[in-house]
Amino acid sequence: MEYLESRRARVEDRLEEVLDGVEPSELADEVRHVTLSGGKRVRPTVTVLVCEALGGEPADAVDYAVGIELVHNASLVIDDIIDDSDVRRGVPSAWAEFGFGPAIIASDGLLGEAFALFSSDERAMQAVSEAMVELGEGEATELVAQPETEDEYMELARRKTGALFRAAAELGAIAADADAYTVEAFGQYAERVGIAFQMRDDVLDATADEDDLGKPTGHDETMDRPSLVQVTDITPAEANQRARDLSDDALASISAVDAPDSQALAYLQDLAEFVVVRER
């Protein structure tokens, strides 16, 4: 765990450094509240680990890792407004703490800081831009036409969750100067991990204790929000199995790449297995 925590700490330090440079102070307070209130930092960790698994150094990927975490947090601000969620990570959500206007401005500020970190590489800009298009289309689709079948749910999950995971992995491969085939393979791995992550999130929303989870539960049903459990008639246990199957597909994606065995690769494999058994 020390290996993994050292990578996470590197991301956290750089994240704070970036946020310390935000102006004016009111905006800085808002973006710090959103970003530093907790979070698993899964996406930025994926970015760093993919880079290392392909022969790069953590320092090569840390700015991209911070950038993808800022994009993720910006999207959470908007999610909480749409869902009327007043708690995020056990603290007041941005709109509940500062109001709707400042929360939206905080989301914009986070995106601006993120793209400043991606701007040094055209491939990085393209990877994140494509992910944001997918994310936006997913959000819009959910608002106007909720999925009614498992296939429609899977497409929504791919756009809303899988796309940013894909970008996180692609950024790590780009930071390691990998070829297009390798970038794609690791992108597929992460997209599948992201969808499995969302499936498990749906199950936890339906079955977990609110205090253990750190955010309100039963929200999908209350808001009539599409989750795998709500859209289909499958049980939570069956949903968990779907997630495990997707996790196996994710592992198959990276096994097709000629990446040497390493701690970084082992942790990426562990992540694919962890996301479907996590309790938070």
UniProtKB/TrEMBL annotation:
The keyword Magnesium applies. One of its GO terms (biological process) is isoprenoid biosynthetic process. Signal peptide: none annotated. Its cofactor is Mg(2+). PROSITE patterns: POLYPRENYL_SYNTHASE_1 (PS00723), POLYPRENYL_SYNTHASE_2 (PS00444). GO terms for molecular function: metal ion binding; transferase activity. Coiled coil: none annotated. Keywords: Isoprene biosynthesis, Magnesium, Metal-binding, Transferase. The keyword Transferase applies. InterPro entries: Isoprenoid_synthase_dom_sf (IPR008949), Polyprenyl_synt (IPR000092), Polyprenyl_synt_CS (IPR033749). Its EC number is 2.5.1.-. Belongs to the FPP/GGPP synthase family. This is Polyprenyl synthetase family protein. It comes from Halorientalis brevis.
